[in-house]
Amino acid sequence: MSSCEAQWLLFLFRDLGIKHDKPINTKHIGIYCHVVRERLENHTIHLLPINTSLQLADIFTKSLSPSPFHGILSKLGTLDIHLPTLRGCVEASIKDHTTSLQGPDESPTNLKASPIQN
């Protein structure tokens, strides 16, 4: 939850008559530093430390060694575009199947479409 959302939630609680005296924990900040500092000082929010291994944005902002890089990459659910695709496997399978159905005198260039009979 961002600090703006936390502030809004506290105002909503106050308007609804719900008492909430504890600070709201937040893991990430999406607004300017001075606003966050103000909310920290008046105990509206409480920042939680996050372990570097859990910071998925590091893959985009830091030069990582292979182990942390692949660990974060696996958490992002990305696909390797250089691996064979299912489409390529299916097309090869269809080609093999078509070849096995043809008789000895039939080749793909000699096959002619026949009209559909009703």
From TrEMBL:
Protein name: Uncharacterized protein
Region (Disordered): 97-118
Biased composition (Polar residues): 99-118
